[in-house]
Every structure is written in structure tokens, then in C-alpha cells.
Amino acid sequence: MSIRIIQGDITKMTCDAIVNAANSSLLGGGGVDGAIHKAAGKGLLLECMTLGGCKAGQAKVTKGHRLPCKRIIHTVGPKWKGGNNGEEELLRSCYRECIRLAVEHECKSVAFPLISAGVYGYPKEQAIKIAIETIEQAIQGMDIDAVLVLFDQETKELAEALYS
After folding, report:
1. In sequence order, what are the residues at sequence separation of 6 or more whose Cβ sits closer than 8 angstroms to the Cβ of residue 48?
2. Which active-site residues does the annotation give?
């Protein structure tokens, strides 16, 4: 399967699972994380409170709550610290773990945001390349549709140029 790249609001995606670029507490924050928590409602916060947080490079699953998806896969991306502190491997691990959990929970479609490229400061071009490469490798030979949902037109155009 391949990856589609779109501009849009990940909270409105009708698919089996969406990925939340969460912080380590899993209790909501800014950006994508805040938008998902707000749209999903208080039930998501209550469920996340039972998960005990999450480390960078790992992922955990909850129900979709008030969102049009069945599952939310929460992953914690690395904070950019110059690129020589294991950030790339942690970021790749986020995408791989999300695909692993999607398969485990029988999800056939997954929507991803661009992990770590917001307040965590990962350079967008590198984050896009890592996302596309890692998702493509992880879904190779699987029956999974992956969508990279980007917030703004500029990032979408950059991703399309890198992907072509």
C-alpha cells in the first residue's frame, strides 16, 4: 500500500485509527494533541489517565470516543535537540509502533499527523522524509491505508515535493 498526503483536520478523519502526537503524560496539550482531546471529549482524558503515560518512541491505544475513528493511537515523538541525540530513531519508532498497534487492533486505515514537527521542533523536511519512509516500510505487504494529514498547505506542498 502507499501513503496519501492531504491537508486537513485529523479530528475529522473517518478511518479506523488516528494518531495523536501526544506528550508523555497523554493528558492533552497543545497543537494536534489539544485538538484531539477537545474533539474527543472528557472520556478520552479519563481513559488516558489510566494508561500511566508514555515514553518517547512508544505508543498506546484508546477508544475513539467522540471522534469518527474507532481508535486513537497516542505516540510521543522526540524533542529536537540538534539531531545527534537519537531523535531520528525515536521518531521512526513512533511510526513503527503506531502501525504495529494498528495491526494488533485490526485497523485497516490510519491517519497520521506529522509527529514532532510542531512545538517539539523537529525540522519539517526531515520529519516528512522520516514519516513517509518509515510508514511505507512498515505497511509494505499489509492491507493498510495510511494518510499523512498535514495542517497547512505549505507543509502539504513540501511533503508532495519530497514524496514525488
Report:
1. 26, 27, 28, 62, 74
2. 33
